[in-house]
């Protein structure tokens, strides 16, 4: 989705939903996308572009974390799975348990070097 497509979708959705919230939009902007004044259109496109970039960055960071998490889980051996299970048994979350096991694994790897 491009910034312009997002801006158009936002504009059309906003105009459609505004009456349901008791809001009457300005006559200058309550138009089909093709008829929105160019300055307003360019502002909405710029805002949409920044929002898209923020979402892309957030998704990329989440994917990197998921890949790291998956790699950590993949390399846990039985001992570290036991550590994670023990940690879970003490009321910790799965993420906390895997993090704890990963720290144990890292500590062990550091000692082996």
Descriptive terms for the model:
4 helices, single chain, 2 domains, mainly alpha, 113 residues
Kindly describe this structure:
The chain is mainly alpha-helical and 113 residues long. It has 2 domains: 1-68; 76-113, no CATH class. It has helices at 3-17, 38-75, 78-89, 94-112. The radius of gyration is 25 Å and the shape is elongated.
Order of helices and strands, N to C? HHHH
Number of strands: 0
Low-confidence stretches: none
Number of domains: 2
Distance between the termini: 48 Å
State the secondary-structure class.
mainly alpha
Q: Estimate the helix proportion, in percent.
A: over 70%
Short description:
With 113 residues, the chain is mostly helical. It is built from four helices and no strands.
List the topology elements.
Layout: H1 3-17, H2 38-75, H3 78-89, H4 94-112
Helix pairs in contact: 1-2, 3-4
């Amino acid at each position: 989705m491009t910034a312009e497509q997002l801006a158009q979708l936002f504009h059309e959705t906003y105009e459609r939903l505004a009456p349901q919230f008791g809001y009457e939009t300005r006559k200058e902007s309550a138009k089909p996308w093709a008829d929105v004044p160019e300055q307003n259109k360019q502002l909405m496109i710029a805002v949409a572009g920044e929002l898209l970039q923020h979402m892309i960055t957030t998704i990329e960071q989440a994917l990197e974390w998921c890949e790291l998490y998956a790699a950590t889980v993949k390399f846990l051996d039985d001992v570290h799975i036991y550590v994670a299970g023990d940690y879970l048994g003490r009321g910790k979350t799965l993420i906390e348990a895997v993090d704890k096991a990963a720290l144990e694994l890292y500590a062990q790897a550091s000692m082996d070097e």
